Amino acid sequence: MDIRQSVNAAYSKTLDTEGLRKEYLAEQIFAADQITMTYSHVDRIVFGGIMPVAGEVVMPDLGKTYGTAYFLERREMGVINIGGAGVIVVDGVSYDIGHEEALYIGKGSKELAFRSVSKDAPAKFYYNSTPAHAAYPIKKVTRDMASPQTMGDAKTSNKRTINKYIVPGVVDSCQLIMGLTKLEEGSMWNTMPCHTHERRMEVYFYFNMSPDSVVFHMCGEPTETRHIVMRNEQAVISPSWSVHTGVGTQAYTFIWGMAGENQTFPDMDHVAMTTLK
Known about the structure:
Blueprint (H helix, E strand, L loop, with lengths): L1 E3 L4 H4 L4 H8 E2 L11 E3 L5 E5 L6 E2 L4 H4 L8 E7 L4 E5 L2 E5 L4 E4 L6 E5 L8 E7 L7 E3 L7 E3 L8 E7 L10 E7 L11 E2 L3 E8 L7 E5 L6 E5 L3 E5 L6 E4 L4 E8 L8 E2 L7
């Protein structure tokens, strides 16, 4: 498990390129028949990927790591599959999770196993996990259920569809919210004008990118912006004090996951274009 400590804004602005990447970037999310796991001290979020190829991948005993009897004893978890058809088994109950379908797994779920329907088209389960105070029911979310919302405009290169998988009204959760945003061809900004949300942190996972394309993920305070160059299937930690935005060399897709004080999706502090530096 890769542990990332919290970084404040004052220290962050002193970091060079390698320093920013070391603190915020998770370069490898998927590895065959493995579970990758990054634990950020920012709101105690855990994120990573699970890609079963040769057989079933079982969540190991992580009790000592988290000081609990098992991983989700005091946590909840959201999983979105960006690969081929797969199956998630929670305490002996199987859930078929297809491409761009999600599963919310509530606090108290003990045994977790993951497998692909075909090793030639393995599932790629991207997950976020946050601390939880209550146990909510496990729920599968299909693309049709994901509360889609189209925003932006081709004129400003940010026309996109936001699919809200784990949000109030779709899934009951303690604090975790997750969704998948697709940019339309010709659009590159995932949001602009940008924003911060002091009450929530966020993790971005970028994918559906060609080998020769990149995303410039913006970070830093609005008057002290920096960027991290990201490639396909990489994730980045975005603290609450940082701007939340990014731009690619072509259209891409990303999964966002948030944790913090509330679950109010529109609760953002928008940054005026004249403020950015």
